[in-house]
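Support case: user asked for a sample of complex input and structure output to validate their parser. Sending the pair below.
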Amino acid sequence: MIRQATVLAMKDLRLLLRDRAAAFFTFVFPLAIALFFGYVFSGTTSEPLKVVAFVERPSPQAEAFLKALGDDGGFSLTVVADRPAGELAVRRGQAAAMVVVPESYAEGLDSVFSGGGAEISLVVDPSRRAEGAMLVGKIHEVAFRTVFSSMSDPEQFGRMLDRAEKSLEASDLPLTDRIAVRTALARARAMSSKPREGAAAGGSEGGLAGWRPVKVSVGELEMQPGIPANSFAISFTQGLAWALFGAVLAFGSGIAEERQRGTLVRLLVSPMRPVTILVGKALGCFVACLATEWLLVLVGVAFFGVRVSSWPLLALCSAATAFGFCGVMMMLAGGFRTQGGAQGAGRAVLLVLTMVGGGTVPLVFMPPFLRLASNASPFKWAVLVAEGCTWRSWGMAELWLPLAALVAVGAAGLAIGAVMVRRAL
Amino acid sequence: MLTVTDIRKSFGSLRALDGVSLEVRRGEVLGLLGPNGAGKSTALAVCTGQVAPDSGSVSIGDAGSPRDPAARRLVGLAPQQIALYADLTARENLVFLARIHEVPEPSRRADALLDMVGLLPRARDRVGTFSGGMQRRLNLAAALVHEPPLLLLDEPTAGVDPQSRSAILDVVQGLAERGHAVLYTTHYMDEAQRICSRVAIVDHGRVLETGTVDSLRAAHGGDLEAAFLALTGRSLRD
């Protein structure tokens, strides 16, 4: 029976992929929804890149660096009072990244010629890595300019040379090398009293190409349980509702379609028992639901910073979701004898359930009355378990209820639907 | 191979079959002729187990009732409606059906059948792109994937061009020569004259007469059509 059901499911999946409209609404449309809402909520626009900055200890050097960064024109820079405020701005999509000027920045700049160096850290929204990479380049450029600018300040440049000389004395360089470096430092000290034209603006970098006065360390925003890492963490689970909508609709009219096409007669005349036909249809729907769920998750994880808190739990939840929606599909298949009836009524009913279940307004943004009403929609439970395995970082203690709801919907739907379908066969 | 004994079937107040008895033996083509609404398709539905008779029995070979999957393995059905997946290719359709019937080497079997109905060059084309005649030929091939000893063909040449029709009739004749039992419904008297070993003329859910073409012609004078009209009358049917 299983072999024949698998053959039937494979045929249905192949037909689904051949039907461009059905394949689009099952696989592409949910992704488009996830991206659309993800970008809408993330605040990504063609305006200057929004960046927040946090200075751990104010200093003239830090101030100069931030001023240069702010003056660059490619950014809209906002200085925040503390680190959590900056992280929140990134998390909410109000900024693409947070630039952190550490406490040691000023000392680090003074030791650029003596083996040390300044460090800037960057906290980036994982879904905006490309903008983060661009920001790293800009920080290097701005840092280079500010370091050269600081060389035009004899006092600061003198401090740099003092540190370098001290470091040289403490080193175990051979005497000849030490003399050569000391001579070079002396010449630099003499030149600092009459800086070259254009040095402040970067001037000619000459042999300094590739040398970077500031080290930029990039970190992605850490996932915090209960807080979405970015807008895509919400929009991708929202897209899941539409993915399930497409899969159920495609398979819900499958039996009616077979009947209208005449192929159901062939299946019924074959040695297969009617229950095998039902298992085959359910199996096809199960695989389609799983495939579209995992496509969304993998695209979200790979390109949009969606984080999975537990892959094993996600596997369990996606299987329970697919099972639950096989039940929904079977009810739809059993309720209507014609393809038009199944698709028309399916669209109407599923659309309402999808919207109420978090397909349009994400569950977290729903007003209390709508959140209560959403309990009637299996889509809500599917979205909830998906959120549980991603940004909510739930364990089994929190997941069991929505999982049980999905399994119950699946079992009831398959039982009732199977009876209805068998009567209609 | 197929024994139908006194089957009766009503749909509400409509009596579709009223004591039909038939027998189809190996190596013969039994033509089931009758006007529209005579009960031919219902008889086929009962023979394939899709519809349970109110009374009477159907037995397929030694396997018994067509409600039993073992008996259905012995039956190949070419429905009147083209029953194929338009979005699958010709080969994919046949391979799928062969797998459903657990035929060994389904691809080889599919190619052999495509060759038999002259569709091998179009094996990779989707059925939706086929002409009516090509679809009819493939519809017949689909009934043969598991080499059933009993074939039930419901108007297999309806709406096809003379070339496809001739090809289908050749295939059916060849199958009978190879020992298959064929129950063949049609409206075309010339087809029945060409390929049927015997014919059964049905109307109002009853078998009016059964015999060879020659015996019917001899009994009613003229050709088979004259015999048919003599038995079923000339009044128009809906």
